[in-house]
Write a structure and sequence with these properties.
- The protein is α+β, with helices and mostly antiparallel strands.
- The chain has a single domain (about 10-305, about 395-435), classed as 2,3-Dihydroxybiphenyl 1,2-Dioxygenase, domain 1.
- About 45% of the residues lie in helices and about 15% in strands.
- The chain contains 20 helices and 13 strands.
- It has helices spanning about 10-25, 30-50, 50-60, 60-65, 80-90, 120-125, 140-155, 160-170, 175-190, 200-210, 210-215, 235-240, 305-320, 330-340, 350-355, 365-370, 380-385, 400-410, 425-430, 440-455; strands at about 70-75, 95-100, 110-115, 125-135, 225-230, 265-270, 275-280, 285-290, 295-300, 360-365, 375-380, 390, 460.
- A hairpin with a 7-residue loop joins β2 (about 95-100) and β3 (about 110-115).
- The radius of gyration is 23 Å and the shape is globular.
- It binds 2-oxoadipic acid and nickel (II) ion.
- 2-oxoadipic acid binds near residues 74 and 406.
């Protein structure tokens, strides 16, 4: 039994997300500028698009959009990852999906912590893309050992945060005061530290191995490296960024602009060069700099079935075979032209996407469907008769190719190293201390449940 005095995990997550946003706005002022721009563009998009407004309103997802964001952190050890899992669980966030980025030249693998229940997603879908450094992919053995030692010595969680996680696990929740202290304490882990824990020489060695290794190993904690608001029109935001003094990366990652958005489109501005000091062997501080934190925006579309995803992957690969986007943006126009040409093969009509089994949808009875509940129609007939409506299920996850593109644009061309592709979900799950949820099975379950709700009240047949 949960104690009614406990604050709900959804509330703790919303409070944490708001606190994180306030902290990041202080730390990275360009994030505040981006937030205001996204808010304006979202309002304009809804004003100009009553059908989109209606869809968001009937699916109860209008309110979540202005509060919606994801962040990303990079962890160094298995112990950090498994403790982070316990921290996120207190906020109702669970690991979904496995992402291997070694294939894209980034020595990490990752999962996304996020709420999974429909009701929780509607309250606040805050997600954190959480990577774990793969020191096993770093060739220099001495450096690897030194990095391991540095990581073993740091403690990224406050004693208060650990105690409150244990208390929440023991009691099954947290009361008001504890929940507030939990948010404040956990926030400390995500803070930026302008004093590194390594010497200038060590930083240089780590940086030479890979910039990402330096980013993880040189600091006291896993600073949040971006916080991404959700926009309803990413092309407009991209176009208007320069007027706000922000330079976006050359291309929007993911699918091209379409009438019916699919999966996820993302763009970002480059990482800031920030002042950091490093302590020499003799104890004196040396000033230097580090680039890690950037800004990103995203537009979310329908979640794709394995069949839809396979088509998406095939079309994206074909595009990239024909034109690989250069990091300096020099062939951006050509890339975008090829992308939209190739993606003509992906249907751009909700009912087509649904009928071909490419995307996941939620079904619901219309008013007409309710009043004629005794009339038992099959699902397609019920849709045709206007008794049942369907709406796209939002993709709540990430895309490894886009994530790699975002990593790369922030690490610079020189960071594009070759690693042997070595996905290792087992090792990741062992380090995490649990298995990750399969996102396809989860979306399919949500779709099935919505169909069953209709069937129970007036429709037969199932669609898959
Ligand atoms: C994570 C990049 C992944 C996204 O939106 O795909 C990500 C990172 O840079 O640490 O956030
Ligand atoms: Ni991101």
């Amino acid at each position: 039994m949960t104690n009614p005095e406990f604050v709900s995990a959804d509330t703790i997550r919303s409070d944490f997300s708001a606190a994180m946003s306030a902290m990041y706005r202080d730390e990275v002022p360009a994030y505040g500028t981006l937030m205001s721009l996204v808010k304006r563009v979202n309002e304009e998009t809804l004003d100009a698009n009553p059908e989109l407004l209606r869809r968001l309103a009937v699916t109860d997802s209008l309110d979540r959009i202005s509060e919606e964001r994801h962040g990303a952190i990079r962890l160094g050890t298995a112990a950090e990852l498994s403790m982070m899992r316990r921290v996120f669980a207190v906020m109702g966030m669970f690991p979904v999906g496995y992402y291997d980025l070694s294939t894209a030249g980034v020595p990490v693998h990752a999962t996304a912590f996020r709420p999974v229940q429909e009701a929780s997603l509607k309250v606040n879908p805050f997600r954190v893309f959480t990577s774990l450094l793969r020191l096993d992919l770093i060739k220099d053995e001495d450096l690897r050992r030194e990095a391991e030692k540095l990581l073993a010595e740091r403690d990224i969680f406050t004693a208060g945060a650990v105690a409150l996680v244990e208390k929440a696990e023991r009691q099954g929740g947290l009361g008001q005061d504890d929940a507030k202290r939990f948010v404040d304490d956990v926030l400390q882990t995500f803070r930026w530290h302008d004093k590194a824990i390594v010497s200038p020489e060590m930083y240089a060695r780590l940086h030479d191995a890979h910039r990402l290794v330096a980013d993880v190993v040189s600091f006291k904690g896993p600073h949040i490296n971006h916080l991404t608001p959700r926009t309803l029109d990413i092309d407009v935001v991209q176009e208007r960024m320069p007027a706000e003094g922000i330079t976006p990366k050359a291309i929007v990652e993911g699918p091209p602009q379409r009438k019916c958005p699919i999966l996820l489109r993302q763009t970002s501005f480059k990482a800031l060069e920030e002042d950091v000091s490093f302590q020499g062997e003799d104890g004196t501080w040396h000033s230097g700099s580090h680039t890690a934190r950037f800004g990103e925006i995203e537009q979310r579309g329908v979640a794709l079935t394995p069949k839809g995803r396979a088509l998406y992957d095939r079309l994206l690969n074909e595009t990239r075979d024909r034109c690989r986007p250069a990091a300096d943006g020099s062939n951006a126009a050509e890339y975008l032209a090829v992308l939209s040409e190739v993606f003509k093969a992906f249907p751009d009509d909700w009912n087509e996407i649904r009928k071909q089994g490419l995307g996941y949808f939620v079904y619901a009875l219309t008013d007409k469907g309710f009043s004629s509940a005794s009339q038992r129609l099959d699902l397609e007939a019920a849709i045709d008769a206007g008794h049942v409506r369907f709406d796209p299920l939002v993709y709540e996850d990430f895309l490894p190719v886009s994530a790699a593109g975002i990593f790369q644009s922030n690490l610079g061309d020189d960071a594009a190293q070759e690693f042997v592709a070595s996905p290792n979900q087992r090792m990741f799950e062992r380090d995490l201390g649990t298995t990750v949820l399969d996102e396809f099975a989860h979306y399919a379950g949500m779709m099935r449940a919505s169909i069953e709700r209709c069937v129970g009240t007036g429709t037969t047949a199932a669609a898959e």
